[in-house]
Amino acid sequence: METLHSAIVTSPVGPLFLAASPKGLVALEFDTRLQGQRTIRPNPRDLRVENKHLRFEDSAALMRPYALELEEYFRCQRREFSFPLDLRGTEFQLTCWRALLAIPYGETRSYADVARQVGNPKAFRAVGMANNRNPVAIVVPCHRVIGSDGSLAGYGGGLDIKRKLLELEGALSGPLAA
């Protein structure tokens, strides 16, 4: 059984659950999640363990470096995160998440743009599913991916949080900013 250090931190978009291995951040999840959305944590509502191979150790002190960088991000004092990531997913998901990490602060890309970037121009729906499975919200910036028509589309924290993150970064203009 693997032990991950974890903490819940406050943020302007609500509580965030953080979990890290010795290699880096494994998860950054919104405290509330949409129906059907995956999580690394046990579900406290029915006490069902979704990941039987993981044990979480509450470690606010060990999670502090991650929390500090997030605080700086929310104060508009940080545009890139410097801590290591321990991303876990399929090869396609990892490729998509690396493409997301390349989207600059304050900019957006469409799902089709990301599909082209990962070398599979017709895989925009698969890119959307990889975004849906992104275990490290905000840091792996799936909020920067929008519809080809410029509309906000699905986000694990909800479209209101996606809009707030894009507004914070100055990435919204025109009708989306209204």
Fold and architecture overview:
The chain has 178 residues and is of the alpha/beta class. The chain folds into 2 domains: 2-74, Double Stranded RNA Binding Domain; 91-177, Winged helix-like DNA-binding domain superfamily/Winged helix DNA-binding domain (Arc Repressor Mutant, subunit A, Orthogonal Bundle). The protein is built from 5 helices and 6 strands, in the order E-E-E-E-H-H-E-H-H-E-H. A 4-stranded mixed β-sheet has the order 3-2-1-4, with helices on one face. The protein has a two-stranded parallel ribbon with strand order 5-6. The longest helix is centred in the middle third of the chain and has 15 residues, at 60-74. It is globular and about 45 Å long. The relative contact order is 0.16. Residues 43-49 have low confidence and may be disordered.
Describe the structure using short key phrases.
single chain, 178 residues, alpha/beta, Double Stranded RNA Binding Domain, Arc Repressor Mutant, subunit A, 2 domains, four-stranded mixed sheet, two-stranded parallel sheet, 5 helices
